[in-house]
Amino acid sequence: xxxxxxxxxxxxxxxxxxxxxxxxxxxxxxxxxxxxxxxxxxxxxxxxxxxxxxxxxxxxxxxxxxxxxxxxxxxxxxxxxxxxxxxxxxxxxxxxxxxxxxxxxxxxxxxxxxxxxxxxxxxxxxxxxxxxxxxxxxxxxxxxxxxxxxxxxxxxxxxxxxxxxxxxxxxxxxxxxxxxxxxxxxxxxxxxxxxxxxxxxxxxxxxxxxxxxxxxxxxxxxx
Length: 223
Fold this sequence. Notes:
This protein is α+β, with helices and mostly antiparallel strands. The protein has helices at residues 2-11, 33-41, 47-53, 96-118, 171-174, 180-192, and strands at 59-64, 67-70, 73-75, 78-84, 87-95, 122-129, 155-163, 168-170, 198-200, 212-215, 221-222.
């Protein structure tokens, strides 16, 4: 029971980063999966650690005031993100753990995969889902009465990427293809599972045929 309680406390981010028995999160270092998950979780309630981590030169993010939780909707310790690793995105409010996970995913998975498979850099991220006060859209009754991670700014839905030459890669258009764009998308989908707890793509269900759902909630799933 003590071990379970300890894991619950670490996973829930109830221990501030400065009290963890390992180094503070460094966005430049991919690290080890379980330790990285705890490091990200520790940012949830630690404003000072969040500010220090997101002072990274690859991130354009500014702190936003907490939005009081009402009926499961709102956020705490969140930032407004505009650019990550040279890739611009429409302004999105994300919790510090989600913003940090997004940064690490782009730095360590998306940019290297784009260079490997597409021969160029990603300069833009297209998304159409961040904070939204709503329930899970499950496509059926299961889970329909539970709040989505979007309701606490702990998730983002990524629909595609813009490349340096002006072309785009689309989850809807390119996932089922057999070319370099599909290989790139599948690589970054797998890579997202190293930083986010839940990653859902086109093969999860029909609701995700046109985007990757990435969140830092309590569950753990990579589909």
